[in-house]
Structure formats: structure tokens, C-alpha cells
């Protein structure tokens, strides 16, 4: 009798409940470090959630005791540079940043390097107090990849971004919360219930409004205030012309 070989566990788990898609990075033995197509799987799961009309909000977290330790060092040494260059060109890494739905990162443990960059692409971040946060790049001979320089600067300012990148020091989740990198602090036992409760409040809002507000904030970060003001009113006019405001009001009244 031939016993079939056990199938490897999926590197990203995908579940949907009550309008909330939960993506769980699933290499707990390596603190969920990205390797062997795992990042491509994660990006595909984000696109899947974006395309699903039943999904209103996306939550990203890690299995086990970590969120994501970055890239798996054991695979970096044998990396084919030209293949890596091709993959980056063909598959942009900023899917979460441009998603049409809110993204919440639930940082349950260590987050570093490219894992930190992907956490910072979320709209809202929860963290446990003792989670270790670090850019890590300068310690291992790399540079600020995946747009993390821009992300950090826009979140905490140039001085603090340079400190975190140049020193590559570790800060706690509590410090990350104080710095403004995480908006919410939760105890480990209540992290996911806190995240889901918050996600449920977003899922109850108008999805078109959520999508456009995300777009506005991203655009407003790099344009003059008069442009932001004018664009905001144009979006208001368009919403009123489409009757979306009336539809949303009716939905709220009927709830």
C-alpha cells in the first residue's frame, strides 16, 4: 500500500466571516518569514479579497507567536537576482496599499524588515505590548526596501524614520503605539477579538465611501491642500448625483 506524502500546509490561510477576510501568514516555525512564493500567495489573497463582493474589510495577522520576521535569511543567500528582479517588475508589492477595502494588521509578535513594510501598508494597526518591531535592513546589509522609507516618513516623520532605519534597533509594541506606528494596543488574549470588533464597525459602513476615502487620503498625502479640497468636493458632487448618499441613508435607517 502506497501512503501518499503529506501535503504541506498552506503558507497563507484565508477565511471569510461576517464580511471580514482574515489572511494569516502561516510559517510559524520561521516566525512567518516570506519564502518560496509565500509573498505571491499573500498578494493573491489580497486581490482575492478585493474582488469578493462579500468582503468589506481585510485583516492580516500571523500564525503562532509572530507576525512576520521579514524575508527568510536561509533563502536569501541562494536568491537568483535576475529572477527576483523579474518578479518584482511583474508583481507589484504594494497591493495592500492600493486595495479598495480597508486593511487592518494585527501584530501579534515580532515584525521585521519586509514584514514590517507590509504591516505599515495597512490602514490601521493593532499590536500587543511586547511585540518586537524592527526595520532590520541595516543589520543585514540591505537597504530600505518595499517603500518602507516613504511609509515610515509619512507615519512618524523624517527624524524618527531615519532613527529606526539607520539604527535598526528593536522597539516594543508599546513604543510602536507611542510613536504612532500602531493605532491600538491590545493584550495578547484579546488581540483578535479587539481587531474583529473594530473590523465589524468598518464593515458596517458604506463600502464605496471606504474605498474613496482610502484613495483620498493616499492622494492628499502628496498634493497641495487646494487640490485636496477641490477633489473632495468633486467626489461629493458625484456621490450626490449617483444617489449614493440616499441609498446609504436608507440602508442605515433600515438597519
UniProtKB/TrEMBL annotation:
<comment type="similarity">
    <text>Belongs to the enoyl-CoA hydratase/isomerase family.</text>
</comment>
<protein>
    <submittedName>
        <fullName>Enoyl-CoA hydratase/isomerase family protein</fullName>
    </submittedName>
</protein>
<dbReference type="Pfam" id="PF00378">
    <property type="entry name" value="ECH_1"/>
</dbReference>
<dbReference type="InterPro" id="IPR029045">
    <property type="entry name" value="ClpP/crotonase-like_dom_sf"/>
</dbReference>
<dbReference type="InterPro" id="IPR001753">
    <property type="entry name" value="Enoyl-CoA_hydra/iso"/>
</dbReference>
Amino acid at each position: 500500500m502506497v501512503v501518499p506524502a503529506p501535503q504541506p500546509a498552506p503558507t497563507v490561510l484565508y477565511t471569510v466571516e461576517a464580511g471580514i477576510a482574515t489572511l494569516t501568514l502561516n510559517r510559524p516555525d520561521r516566525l512567518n518569514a516570506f519564502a518560496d512564493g509565500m509573498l505571491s500567495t499573500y498578494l493573491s489573497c489580497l486581490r482575492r479579497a478585493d474582488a469578493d463582493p462579500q468582503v468589506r474589510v481585510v485583516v492580516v495577522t500571523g500564525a503562532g507567536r509572530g507576525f512576520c520576521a521579514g524575508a527568510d535569511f536561509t533563502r536569501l543567500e541562494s536568491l537568483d537576482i535576475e529572477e527576483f528582479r523579474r518578479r518584482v517588475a511583474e508583481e507589484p508589492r504594494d497591493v495592500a496599499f492600493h486595495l479598495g477595502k480597508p486593511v487592518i494588521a494585527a501584530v501579534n509578535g515580532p515584525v521585521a524588515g519586509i514584514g514590517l513594510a507590509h504591516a505599515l501598508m495597512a490602514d490601521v494597526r493593532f499590536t500587543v505590548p511586547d511585540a518586537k518591531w524592527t526595520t532590520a535592513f541595516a543589520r543585514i546589509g540591505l537597504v530600505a526596501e518595499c517603500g518602507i522609507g516613504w511609509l515610515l516618513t509619512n507615519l512618524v516623520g523624517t527624524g524618527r524614520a531615519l532613527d529606526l532605519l539607520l539604527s535598526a534597533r528593536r522597539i516594543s509594541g508599546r513604543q510602536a503605539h507611542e510613536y504612532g506606528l500602531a493605532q491600538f494596543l491590545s493584550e495578547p488574549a484579546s488581540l483578535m477579538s479587539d481587531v474583529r470588533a473594530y473590523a465589524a464597525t468598518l464593515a458596517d459602513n458604506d463600502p464605496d465611501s471606504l474605498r474613496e476615502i482610502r484613495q483620498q487620503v493616499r492622494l492628499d498625502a502628496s498634493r497641495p491642500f487646494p487640490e485636496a479640497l477641490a477633489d473632495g468636493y468633486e467626489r461629493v458632487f458625484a456621490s450626490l448625483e449617483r444617489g449614493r448618499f440616499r441609498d446609504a441613508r436608507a440602508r442605515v435607517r433600515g438597519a
